Amino acid sequence: MEEETSKLPLPDTFLDFLQTNGIDPLIYTAIESTPRYIRLKPGNEAYIEEIEAEIKCRLQKVNWLPGFYSLSPHIQIANSKPYKEGKIYGIDAASGAAVLALDISVGDHVLDLCAAPGAKLCMISDLLGDSGTVTGVDVARHRLAACRTMLQKYVLGDACRLFVADGTTFSLMPLRDRLDSISCEFALEEKKDTFTEWTSRRPWKERKRAARAKENAASRLVSETDHPELIFYGKASGVVGLSKYELYKTVSSSEVSSSGYDKVLVDAECTHDGSIRHIQKFEHWGWETLNGRVLNAERSDNLTTLQLKLLKNGFRLLRVGGSLVYSTCSLTVSQNEDVIEWFLKENSSAGKVTMVHCVVKITSCLFH
């Protein structure tokens, strides 16, 4: 029986783009046979048969990716009981591979520099269990708010902090017993603006600020000069009991080597040309929009500049001995190998690089 293929009418401009970048256009003919993936929240292994009955689909275990299952691309899980009860969540296998490449260990302090929409954060939190912390950063407030919702739904936010910030300039360290390093001057001074346990009921000042931001733009992006905005923190994140000074205290470059993050994930913004599902959406959005979102040369140049900046900052925040994973959903050399090559020319202290081509995501591992 022949494999069912899509009749996706790829425009000539996109075919030219693929040829220029050495990408086989045949990969976009497998849309109807490309599975979707879910991750089972740990502790729900005994409910597999029940979940299959609820979604009316047999789940196929992904042997190389623990906790992941593939299912028919036509199955919708959003209205299913297991999804609503927080037993499963949708996440691409490629995204899972990027998290797996971090090789998270007990007690790690992990930074996700491009955190939205949140599935990777959930997986990281799952792997950490009751140890370590995870810090999620994203430039778009509404997208990071979706991360917060997801963490709360799956009860995975206890050790998490979420900051609306520019990932190319974010500079806050993980909270490694930071209270011990507070100067005597501030230790003696009465704490002001101390963080109490987080609540979804925001103070009046914050509600007013959010309303003003909504008026200015439907989708607020922070600039390089904006202060990181903490929009969520869990009870075990280290934030509760700190003053704003203690939370936002900066450290010297020499301190970063020992107090930086153990693991950093830079799943950078890209053209998404490697995502079959993403390219399929242009059939509904209109192929003319493909030029602006994927094929525009100026946008591509801006993206590679952004990717390099994200990678450099992520590496700067990594402690000596830590590891960083850089990944994209692009198949182009310019957004992957070239970015890594540019980075390595400027950072001789980076250790061995391992390139992993997985599904539609290219992952690179760097070691400090």
From TrEMBL:
Annotated keywords: Methyltransferase, RNA-binding, S-adenosyl-L-methionine, Transferase
UniProt: S-adenosyl-L-methionine binding residues: 138, 166, 267
GO molecular-function terms, A-Z: RNA binding; RNA methyltransferase activity
Family: Belongs to the class I-like SAM-binding methyltransferase superfamily. RsmB/NOP family.
Natural source organism: Salix viminalis (Common osier)
Keyword S-adenosyl-L-methionine: yes
A single BP term in Gene Ontology: RNA methylation
UniProt-recorded name of the protein: SAM-dependent MTase RsmB/NOP-type domain-containing protein
Keyword RNA-binding: yes
Domain (SAM-dependent MTase RsmB/NOP-type): residue spans on this chain: 1-368
Top-level taxonomic group: Eukaryota
Active site location: 329
Gene3D superfamilies in alphabetical order: Vaccinia Virus protein VP39
